[in-house]
Amino acid sequence: MKVKNLVAALLVCTAPVAFADSTEPAATSSAVPQTPEAWLARMTDFTKNMSAYKDPKVFVPWANAVTEPGFYWAMGNGMMDPAGWLNMMNSAANPAAMANVGQFADPDMYMKWLAASVDPNFYTALLTQLSDPGKMMRWAMAPMDPKMWSMMMNTLNPNMYMKWMMSPMDPRAMQLMMASMNPNTYMGYLGTAVNPSTYGQSWGNWMNLQPAAAPAAMPTPWAAPAAGAPAINFFDPNAWAKMMPAPAAGPQGYVFPFPMPAAPAPAPAAK
């Protein structure tokens, strides 16, 4: 009985890791943020902030990150930093932001969520995180967390207000103002809107069809006039008759433009 309990405990503990792993690039360790600051940068980037809703395998670590108290300390510090806001607005001016939203038209995304809705590992991974005693203890000890006090003391930091006063001189602010006057910004959005790959890989494969090979030329049932021959009198029945060659096969003198199958062998005569 103890062995069964141990195996069950191991399955519950390894479910989040097993479900979060994936062979897809969107769910690799290099793509999924590992720290609250990295998650905040991802969520304020309009070119990537929908990744958690497109793939259940990314949603699991995202749900774990946003239920940690450290995420909100990082978010509080980020809201007081003008650099974060400038980065967010510059990412919104990027045409890739349109592709980020347009991928919700991809049918494959909904098939992933349909598969996750019937996968017990998905629910096990979420419930294991929400019922983690360590997470509950971190919330209970949040008032004594040094990171929380660092965020609170940042409101009294004169350098923070100096950053806001100097933000109009920030190169990222200049870049944002120039993006609104750059015709390439609007052309980039237009090109993204008409690109089938914007709306998912499946739509791109369906719309960007590969040109089929040209079919082999089929023999025509009439003979072309020789070079230098006089023009054909379309009102002369004999001229039309001369255009038709001798029948090679087929009933009623019709020349089939493709090879006909061989006739079946006759049945043996009854003895």
Describe it for me?
The chain has 271 residues and is an all-alpha fold. The protein is 57% helix and 0% strand. It has 16 helices and no strands. The chain has helices at 2-20, 36-43, 51-54, 56-66, 69-79, 82-92, 96-102, 107-117, 120-130, 133-140, 146-154, 158-166, 171-181, 183-193, 201-207, 237-243. Helix 2 (36-43) packs across helix 5 (69-79) and helix 5 packs parallel to helix 11. The protein starts with a helix and ends in a 28-residue tail after the last helix. The model is unreliable at 6-30, 218-222 and 246-258 (pLDDT under 50).
Topology:
Blueprint: H1 2-20, H2 36-43, H3 51-54, H4 56-66, H5 69-79, H6 82-92, H7 96-102, H8 107-117, H9 120-130, H10 133-140, H11 146-154, H12 158-166, H13 171-181, H14 183-193, H15 201-207, H16 237-243
Helix pairs in contact: 1-9, 2-5, 4-9, 5-11, 6-13
Mean pLDDT: 75
Which class do the helix and strand fractions yield? mainly alpha
Largest sheet: none
The number of E-state strands comes to 0
Low-pLDDT stretches: 6-30, 218-222, 246-258
First-to-last CA distance:
81 Å
What's the total helix number?
A: 16
Q: Please trace the helix and strand order, writing H or E for each element.
A: HHHHHHHHHHHHHHHH
Portion of residues in beta strands equals under 5%
Radius of gyration based on Cα positions: 35 Å
Range of helix content: 55-70%
The geometry reads as flat
